[in-house]
Automatic annotation (TrEMBL):
It comes from Spinacia oleracea. Pfam families: Abhydrolase_6. This is AB hydrolase-1 domain-containing protein. Residues 108-364 form the AB hydrolase-1 domain. SUPFAM superfamilies: alpha/beta-Hydrolases. One of its GO terms (cellular component) is chloroplast.
Length: 373
């Protein structure tokens, strides 16, 4: 690609996966602000080829959506979240569901999983809180120096701060995350920044697109820095971002090649919804960090296994692997099979977003695990 030669990142052409960023601390003063909820009574719709329950027979659920004000450094950042629960039920467990980190990250990936769980008769009553990361989804996207430490700080503050959407959950909170988010949750638990009742890691990853392919030697790190700076630049940054990420062809290609296992499941509606996210103000700042490895929670498989091992006898952990994940990501998931600290390892259909592509399979494994712990 011409722009790569111009900025002298590499003499080789980037593989297709870099046309879209593939799915895969300081102590600032924190304050929160409560805003009135919008409450909706909804009948959950059937998921893509995954539910045998007629829509008319589904149970009524409550959905609340709002923003939580997260103060980081000198900025007040609006964080979008939703709460889902059965109407009239008193929750026996609370789940925090955090989406896979990517350039098109959105908590919508968990909507059908939550719907499947809440519709099960005789299941434990649950309240699920779905949250968009700062800089992603429907949350504010300020120009921050996004790093894994910043995201870890956000997760810790979200769970521990008075007035946050999940602070009342106490020690009963189950944290569910996909991709990098899953690994970040385990790392935060290892550091003692949170103490959830359990962690569910769906298709966990730890290496960003460029480092997993090109490595992390000093020459490559300098090139990553150059690319990151260019993506954050006012004019050239948008031009490069539009080539790498913000175009429908790139999004469709990535979803069909390795985000979803079955290309037939990549609908025009999915592509359009993700494309819209890339057009929001500040959309390129988190992708600039993710692509170049700044959001990687660990730097090696050894570290990856070590943080999971630290959960042994401490916090129950379910790992949900995806049978159709890309080769490199699949290898990291497989390394957790039988690993110390992993209470249960299961495999479901899918690639890097099994929770969105095969929500019923993921929901069944989550529900089964919750009944076991």
């Amino acid at each position: 690609m011409a722009f790569i030669a111009t900025i002298r990142l590499s003499p080789v052409k980037f593989p297709t996966q870099f046309q879209l960023l593939s799915l895969e601390s300081p102590q600032p003063t924190l304050s929160t602000k409560s805003i009135k909820f919008k409450q909706l009574r909804v009948n959950a719709s059937a998921s893509i080829g995954s539910s045998n329950v007629p829509v008319a027979d589904k149970l009524s659920t409550l959905k609340k959506n709002d923003y939580w004000q997260w103060k980081f450094s000198d900025k007040s950042i609006k964080i979008y979240y939703e709460e889902h629960e059965k109407e009239g039920s008193e929750p026996s467990k609370n789940m925090l569901m955090i989406p896979t980190i990517s350039d098109v990250s959105t908590m919508e990936e968990w909507n059908l999983v939550v719907s499947e769980i809440l519709q099960q008769d005789g299941s434990e009553n649950l309240r699920a809180t779905l949250v968009d990361w700062p800089g992603l989804g429907n949350s504010d996207r300020p120009k921050l120096d996004y790093t894994a430490d910043v995201m870890e700080k956000f997760l810790s503050d979200l769970i521990n701060s008075p007035g946050s959407p999940v602070c009342r959950s106490g020690n009963d909170l189950v944290v569910v995350g996909g991709g990098h988010a899953a690994t970040m949750a385990v790392l935060a638990a290892k550091k003692g920044l949170m103490k959830p009742a359990a962690i569910i890691a769906v298709a966990p990853t730890w290496a960003g697109p460029l480092p997993i392919v090109f490595g992390r030697d000093s020459n490559m790190e300098s090139r990553y820095g150059l690319l990151r700076g260019t993506l954050r630049a006012p004019a050239l940054g948008w031009m490069m971002y539009n080539v790498l990420v913000s175009n429908e062809n790139a999004i469709q290609s990535q979803y069909k090649s390795h985000v979803y296992a079955d290309p037939a499941n990549v609908t025009p509606e999915i592509v359009q919804s993700r494309y819209a996210l890339t057009k929001k103000e500040g959309a390129r700042y988190v992708p600039a960090a993710f692509l170049t490895g700044l959001l990687d929670p660990v730097k090696s498989r050894e570290e990856f296994l070590d943080i999971f091992a630290s959960m042994e006898g401490n916090i129950p952990v379910l790992v949900v692997s995806a049978s159709g994940a890309p080769k490199r990501s699949k290898a990291e998931m497989e390394a957790l099979r039988g690993a110390k600290g992993v209470s249960k390892f299961v495999e479901v259909p899918g690639a890097l977003l099994p929770q969105e592509e095969y929500p019923k399979a993921v929901a069944e494994e989550i529900q089964r695990f919750l009944l076991e712990i």
